[in-house]
Amino acid sequence: MFTGIVEELGEITAVENLGDACRFRLRGPVVTEGAKHGDSIAVNGVCLTVVEHEGDEFTADVMAETLDRSSLGALAVGSRVNLERPTAVGARLGGHIVQGHVDGTGQVLERKPSENWEIVKVSLPADLSRYVVEKGSITVDGISLTVVDAGPDYFTVSLIPTTLDLTTLGHKQPGDPVNLEVDVVAKYVERLLASTQGAGR
Q: Which of 30, 74, 141, 144 has the highest CB neighbour number within 10 Å of its CB?
């Protein structure tokens, strides 16, 4: 489990095409400290497994399902990525519960800079809109954010200078894809209510 608090901006240093998958090599001095084979690291909000680790770099395999569902397929050598290690049991939950299971992708639609923050508008797939509510939580490229405004096919978030400086959202431009993970609690509630209503018929 992750919390959506990005630990560092990493970089893609190599991409190997494996046919129906690909292997990324990524640089991240913070997240690779103590890393070993089989560990999980979230890359732009996608939970990936460490295959190899050497120095401040690690490799991870990405299957076709992940490439199809997320924006990882658009990454190339030199791309910057948000990196986060799983949260330790007993640690503070600084963001919200994030699984690293991307529900879909959106696109940055608009950026409105202000003196001390920036409002970013992101498109929202129709099948995810029911899970996104004003002042609720959403994960964008692995970043735990609070929804400012929720529309039928978009939402907005307000970014503080720290988020702009230390994550990929400081560099994303209109048209750029982002990974989205909605609040897992909302999905469970929906499923439980559907089961309860079905049993009462």
A: 141
